[in-house]
Amino acid sequence: MSEVVAETAIADGAPRIRVLAADLVDQIAAGEVVERPASVVKELVENALDAGARRIDIEIEAGGRRLMRVVDDGCGMTPAEAQLSVQRHATSKIEAAADLWGLRSFGFRGEALPSIAAVARVVMSTKVKGTAAGFRLGLAAGVQTDAREVGMPDGTQIEVRDLFFNTPGRLKFLKTEATEAGNVSEAVLRLALAHPGVHFRLRSNDRVALDLPPHRDMAERVRAALARRGAGALHEALGEENGARVRAYLAAPEEASSTARSTFLFVGRRFIRDRSLLHAFGAGFGELLEKGRYPLGALFVDVPGDEVDVNVHPQKLEVRFARAQEVYAAVRHVVAASVAQAPWLTSAALPMRAYTLPPERFRGPGPTTTDGAAPHPASQSTDRQTSVVFPPPRPTPLSTGARDEALAPPSAASAPRPGGFFAALEYIGQLHRTYLVCQGPSELILVDQHAAHERVAFQRLREAHRDRGVARQQLFIPATIDLDEGEASAMANPANQEALGRLGFDVEVFGPRTVRLRAAPALLPAGDPKPLLLDVLHRLGDGGGALLVEERLEHVLATMACHSVTRAGDVLSRPEVLSLLGQLDDVDLRSHCPHGRPVLLRMPIGEIERRFGRT
Chain-wide mean pLDDT for the chain? Predict the structure, then answer.
């Protein structure tokens, strides 16, 4: 077969294998490193950090397409070093393969500058401390255009203009200017989190987007940086297990988000993406963190240099651990131990308090047994009291002028539909303040109270939105909310603004990255409406127009339903449970909640008898 292929290639006069042109090689290599403006800024700022900079100023225009400028006060380079730095695989960080283990620097492959220069116009000016003059080097599409002395302060300044000007096929894949600016801001924030002693300042279109002066320690920097995400007090977790040192800064579970964009993971001060590490971080919260939610916080993991490989991703966004499961276990254990002592578990502001009450607390109207007597919940007892947890009185509405809403929380006033599957179940009690234990004619049934109520809320929200839009409540005091770049981009989309109105929000743009919330969906419990608005903005995204909004509507409504309903840990009265079961009979797709979790589990009596050895 190989002889046939060779003969065919020779006969055609065109070899099947060829050496690519140097400029094409550079453009292909650039594609691995330079994905978008944020990739460029990340590489340049990392180089500045490796150079020992104590202040880094970043400036972008048009989301980075037109200009990216990074100025640092680091050690600078000599003219010879500057010219070497733009050659492929030229680096001062490693000399041999063994040096790849235990790396503490960021840029070590020697790919960033030549890759950037291959797809943009670059001017680099640099000066070593103590020298009389600096050196300026210009390049366009990888070709040198300028090289001369220049007067300048110590350090390095790199200007990148017209990104992808010579590769229009890649230029068209960039997002809107606002989105790309948001990505740049996110990249700078990640680097700033891990380097508290460095002053980071980012300007976007002549407006300061981020300014973090030097901080005393990591804790102070993380608190200052995450305050931009609405984080309140952050609880610190610190510990070491099996050689893995873990430090985390944790916001309260109620500040968790439906996306992982506010969960920052670092290994050796490198921001990384790692699904297993993200899962371990969330698992440390246990049942306090609802499934599908991601904690607001930052996690820093350090392991010995010879036990982590940082050379597995072109943009250094992934690492590989030699003992991965031990690292993940260390994260879970350290975070869990700290969460157990977190202030939000003992704060008087918690929505629940523990009491010990007699079992009469559970008595109420409900279905009867076959002999006509009221069934006795499993929790009732005549010889002891039952320890329960229940919420304080429900808060008053956000305003007194709210319209009737299509979504009603479970209440005794909502009569179940007779003859339905759920309404016919015999309610026994509540398990672990999360699952409703029921008995059917020939089976035991567990109902997830949050998933069930979410299914009901989702159905009614969808119907309300289809018919006339979700009812809203005017806030007694309008809430002023600061947005990050991505949220501001989503808010700037007229289609999203229209969608927010139909979803029950009255939002007024109050500044470049500030909005004023005047009304919120009537279904929202009393409290801060900000988390729901931000979650909805994340779901809507930006730049998609009306069609994309409609495509994402199901996810948005599911998010709103999740915010509005009973949660795991809430104690429900018997009338509330019976009302919820009755409402389930009136919705479609009752077997799963909008996020795909099952509403109920069924165990036939025959299976129970088999397990007890009765059959």
Answer: 77
* Residue 251: its H or E element: none
User: pTM of this prediction?
Assistant: 0.61
What CA dihedral angle connects 326, 332, 335 and 340, to 10 degrees?
Answer: -130
In sequence order, the β-bridge partners of residue 479 are 517
- In degrees, rounded to 5, the angle at the alpha carbon of residue 406 between the alpha carbons of residues 495 and 538 is 35
Residue with token string 């300048």: 152
For residue 210, the number of C-alpha atoms closer than 13 Å in the C-beta half-sphere is: 33
| Greater pLDDT, 468 or 173 | 173
For residues 195 and 186, give the distance between their C-alpha atoms in angstroms, rounded to a whole number: 15
Q: What does 144-212 look like in DSSP terms, one character per residue?
A: EEEEEEE---SEEEEEEESTTTT-HHHHTT---HHHHHHHHHHHHHHHHHT-TTSEEEEEETTEEEEEE
CA 446 to chain centre: 31
Match 């006060």 to its residue by tokens.
73
| Residue 230: HSE in the Cβ half-sphere, 13 Å Cα cutoff | 25
Please choose, from the candidates 341, 338, 332, 339, the residue with its C-alpha nearest in 3D space to the C-alpha of residue 241.
332
Provide the pLDDT for residue 376: 33
**Beta strands at 435-439 and 443-448: parallel, antiparallel or unpaired:** antiparallel
Q: What is the pLDDT of residues 30-70, one digit of tens each?
A: 556 788 999 999 999 999 998 999 999 999 999 999 999 99
The confidence band for 517, taking pLDDT boundaries of 50, 70 and 90, is very high
Written as six digits, the tokens of 577 are 């449970």
Query: How far is Cα 40 from Cα 44, in angstroms, rounded to an integer?
Result: 6
Beta bridge partner(s), residue 309: 320
CB atoms within 10 A of CB 443: 16
Whole-angstrom distance, CA of residue 256 vs CA of residue 289: 8
Whether residue 568 has pLDDT greater than 80: no
The label of the residue with tokens 């109920």 reads: 600
Strongest mean pLDDT among 151-165, 376-390, 410-424: 151-165
Residue type, 498: E
Cβ neighbours for 13, distance < 8 A, ≥ 6 positions apart: none
Give the alpha-carbon dihedral of 121, 127, 132, 133, to 10 degrees: 0
Name the pairing type of β-strands 199-204 and 55-61. Answer: parallel
Q: Minimal CA–CA distance to 209: which of 41, 74, 44?
A: 41
Alpha-carbon distance 385 to 309, whole Å? Answer: 57
Q: At what angle do helices 485-492 and 177-193 cross, to 10 degrees?
A: 160
Nearest to 150 by CA among 176, 189, 169, 124: 124
Place of tokens 């002592």: 341
Bridge pairing between strands 143-150 and 134-140: antiparallel
CA dihedral 473, 479, 485, 490 (to 10 degrees): 10
**Nearest alpha-carbon partner for 166 in 137, 140, 138:** 140
Higher per-residue pLDDT: 273 or 567: 273
Q: How far apart are CA 89 and CA 361, in angstroms?
A: 73
Is 35 exposed, middle or buried (CB count within 10 Å of its CB: 0-12, 13-18, 19+)? middle
Nearest-Å Rg of the Cα atoms of the chain is: 30
**Which tokens go with 157?**
């300044």
Q: Could you give the maximum distance between any two Cα atoms of the chain, in Å?
A: 101
